[in-house]
Design brief:
Layout (H helix, E strand, L loop, with lengths): L3 E9 L2 E9 L7 E11 L4 E7 L4 E5 L6 E6 L3 E15 L3 E7 L3 H16 L1
Antiparallel strand pairs: 1-2, 2-3, 3-7, 4-6, 4-8, 5-7
Length: about 120
């Protein structure tokens, strides 16, 4: 692998999409480049995220028999939502869709308790 580039975009308040691009030099499986998509949730929301690469050419989505990935990301965490292996002459089409929902009360308390303790001291 050679040098990598990461692009970050805030797609909603407190929700960040990180796209890491790496050139694959000398890969034995014919991989030309690798893209890793991560979602970072900096809020008390659970995120149900769908990455759809239907219509793309000469690439594979790691861990998926088709080109669609569904991932649930917990509050205040970061998770990989797609790892793409792009072959020679690749063509990328991407669509992202997500819904946010409130976590259970116990999860909210877990994240809020340290702040409450700090405020009371």
């Amino acid at each position: 692998m050679s040098a990598s580039t990461t692009i970050t975009k805030e797609i909603a308040k407190g929700i960040f999409l990180h796209k890491k691009q790496m050139q694959a030099t000398g890969a034995s499986d014919g991989t030309d480049a690798i893209y890793i998509f991560k979602i970072e949730v900096k809020s008390l929301q659970i995120l149900d995220f769908t990455a759809d690469f239907t219509g793309s050419e000469n690439l594979t989505l790691d861990g998926s028999p088709n080109l669609i990935s569904h991932t649930t990301i917990q509050p205040m965490s970061t998770d990989t939502v797609a790892l793409l292996k792009l072959q020679k002459n690749w063509k990328l089409k991407s669509r992202f869709k997500f819904t946010m929902r409130n976590p259970p009360k116990e999860v909210q308390q877990k994240h809020l308790m340290p702040s409450l303790i700090t405020l009371n001291n």
